[in-house]
Amino acid sequence: MTQAILPGTGATGQQATLGVMGGGQLGRMFVQAAQTMGYFTAVLDPDPASPAGLVSHYHVQTDYLDEQGLAQMMQRCAAITTEFENVPAPALLTLGAHRPVAPGADVVAIAQDRLREKAHFVRCGVPVAPFAAIRTAEQLAAVGDELLPGILKTARLGYDGKGQIAVGTRAELAQAWASLKEVPCVLEKRLALAMECSVIVARGWDGDVVHFPPQRNLHRGGILAVTEVFESNLPESSVKQSIEATVSIVNELQYVGVLCVEFFLLADGSLVVNEMAPRPHNSGHYTLDACDQSQFDLQVRTLAGLPLTPPRQHSPAIMLNLLGDLWCGADGQPRVPDWGGVLALPGAHLHLYGKLQARKGRKMGHLTLTGATVEAVRSSALQAAALLGIEPF
Ligand code: ADP
Ligand code: MG
After folding, report:
1. pLDDT in tens, 116-127
2. How many Å lie between the centroid of ligand 2 and the Cα of residue 283?
3. Best CA proximity match to 85, nearest among 259, 300, 304
């Protein structure tokens, strides 16, 4: 892209419009950041009640590959981004032929496939968990015993622990692959994790890279539950290594946009890369309230070709994910979480995504606690967890 897409009213009296493929909560927060800066927004998502569609100037309600829907996006938008990695690559290719699209179809296609993603990490010299590709019965039979116990993951379309099966023996492995309909998979050795962390970077059209501090993440049942970000949340060596690895991963891809890389920290202090997301990430939601620019601000800036300046965290933060489970009482009856109690806590920032139906495991919102000290933030976060019925951490 040669010229920045400037916000606000242009010389012709028209507002520039930025587009996003996908209308989930990530799209919603992108739309809100873009609108704050003075852009109009367009969302493509088939769901009439999609969280981003509900707050966008324009909502194109078609399938991702619908020609007319894509044509409408191209007509409306000066540039287009994506909020989830499973937007079909052909849709991004079509859009990219006519408009700046970031991230591009080719890099999204790599992130859509665990096997291609791992090959990229290996190319960058970043260690991955021991693994084997399983595309054929021969590959299944040839799996080495050193990969067991392991986790069998579908190469494509997995998220929040879906498309994954823990396997202890070869018989379980064969059974698991059959139950996944023998789609291409990766078998990963199950590692003993000391901690998990992630790093979010933004890279502009001109190759400028800025990043947030590494986040420490706690997953429960394969879903992110808690993110903690403050000084000394992680060993110093892991902070440095995870940032260096992320920067090399984003640069090697010639990536444009916001990218998140997830890591495992092992007991011996070594760091292993897990996966990447070609978009803002759940573990970066605290940036909305604890940093002078959020990950969504950076998504807007990278897409529009605006200058990137390093974001600064101004407050320690703990984020709690608010899953649909919280809307279900111990008696199994629907309930409303105690927002009154939560909002009485100092430094509580409530974000609900406007989803109409709460289901177990569904991401309904998040709560970020900020404060002057780590102790104050931890105290508020633990009180919030107790009020909401979230297990302490
Ligand atoms: P998703 O796409 O669903 O986020 P991940 O591969 O990140 O899938 O796995 C989800 C979670 O499962 C991880 O954050 C981690 O807690 C656990 N996990 C995944 N792979 C391994 C592994 N090889 N060893 C130990 N734990 C793992
Ligand atoms: Mg993950």
Report:
1. 999 999 999 999
2. 10
3. 259
